[in-house]
Amino acid sequence: MQATRVKEGRRPLILMRLRQSAEVRKLYAARVPWWRRAPIGYLLCIPIVACGLGIVYLEHLLALHIYVPDLPLVLPVLLVALLWGVGPALCAALLCTLALIYIYVPPQGALMVLPRVQWAADNIDKLAEIMPFFLIEVGIAIIAGQRESARRRALLAELEAQTRAQDLEQLNEELKRADLLKDHFISVASHELKTPITTIRGQAQIALRRLTRVAELPPELENIRLALQKIDEQTYRLSALIDDMLALSSIQAGKLKLRPRRCDLVEICREAVEDQRLVSGRTITLSTPVESLIVEVDSDRLHQVLTNLLSNAIKYSPEQTPVEVSLACRDGQVEIRVRDHGRGIPADQREQIFQAFYRTPEAQASPKDGWGLGLAICKDIVERHGGRIWCEPAPDEGTVFVVVLPLSQG
After folding, report:
1. Inter-CA distances, 34 with 39, 43, 45, 134, 155, Å
2. Domain locations in the chain?
3. Within 10 Å of residue 114's Cβ, how many Cβ atoms?
4. Beta strands in 317-371 (DSSP E)
5. Are 86 and 148 in contact (CB under 8 A)?
6. Exposure on the CB side of residue 149, measured as CA atoms within 13 A
7. 391 near 400, Cβ under 8 Å?
8. Residue 251 and residue 257: Cα distance in Å, rounded?
9. Binning pLDDT at 50, 70 and 90, where does residue 21 land?
10. Bridge-based pairing state of the strands 399-406 and 388-393
11. Residues in domain Histidine kinase (predicted)?
12. HSE value, Cβ hemisphere, 13 Å, CA-based, for 173
């Protein structure tokens, strides 16, 4: 039973291969010019063999002793094999062989008069001389058949490659459509979520302000105050996540536009540092060599870059350690360095962390939430400003994120 099932399972595969082979043969025949088709070859092999036979007949009349007397007939068979394939080549070989037997085996017509065994015994030497010709022509026919098979295999491979290319192109188009739909969904969903989240956070903050005006809160109102604080914190996180998703959607769609203007980079860094100090309550130091550094940047986007870097440094470093921010000018460029005292990032992951939605295994295992969007957004914004961003290990412990931007003195 099992053998019967195996045979039944092989039949569709064999039929499919036969159909595929028939289709390839039809396509191969359709691509061949009309004068190179097999029927034309069968017709033209007769005059071509006759030309070669004339040369051999002249050699016979002139009594030229050649080691392979039938050599001039090899070229017609070779020509027929190259132009029309194995079928006409075998036909030409058969005609040449019969003609040589008729010429070289005396007496003429002996094949019809003498018994076959006696005729073969009397003319064994002559037949031996013709045998190399027969073997050569059979070899030519075999080579022609292999050549045709190779052409069909090449054609089949070409067809399969074209089919695969069409399939890949179709899949690529489907992926592009899916990617566009995904970007559109993220954009629409983010916009739709922005308004209710902002409303919820606003209402929670209003309620918190009202409760802070009460001197002594009863226990039930104290619980409400703690709940409102959690609502405010979580809605802030959701709002930040939605901002990142909107920014990433704009970046991937090529709709993120910069509005560069001459700005004081020191002031931008101070604002970002102060904001993160108030939100996190952590110690953040800022070191600048001068009072102002004028750069041609989009201040809002650069503030977003610094906010993302500072929030990551705060999130993945111990609470008792400071976050250090420093500015420096080198060779017409300004360098911003944000250092934390966390565990650091392995060398094999320092490039991958700038990819969207990528998080290191340590970050995934930590209780800190995140989507892996911040650094991807930072990288795109910095590169749009003509700068570079990377991370490197700190001298003692931790990680340093470096942002380099062109400096415009004014």
Report:
1. 9, 13, 16, 29, 18
2. 32-256, 261-406
3. 15
4. 323-330, 333-339
5. yes
6. 7
7. yes
8. 9
9. low
10. antiparallel
11. 188-409
12. 5
Identify the residue whose tokens are 């080198």: 330
In CATH, the number for domain 261-406 is: 3.30.565.10
Q: How far apart are CA 196 and CA 193, in angstroms?
A: 6
> What value does the mean pLDDT take over residues 177-185?
78
* Burial class of residue 115 in the structure, from the number of CB atoms within 10 Å of its CB (0-12 exposed, 13-18 middle, 19+ buried): exposed
Q: How many helices (H) and strands (E) does the chain have?
A: 12, 7
DSSP classification of residue 296: E
In this predicted model, what pLDDT tens digit does every residue of 34-67 receive, in sequence order? 777 778 878 888 888 888 777 777 766 666 655 4
pTM: 0.53
Please state, in angstroms and rounded to a whole number, the distance separating the CA atoms of residues 229 and 217.
15
Contact predicate 79/137, CB 8 Å: no
Residues 6+ apart with CB under 8 A from 305: 377, 378, 381, 382, 389, 403
| Tens digit of each residue's pLDDT (9 = 90 or more) over 102-159 | 766 655 444 444 455 555 555 666 667 677 777 777 787 778 777 777 776 777 777 7
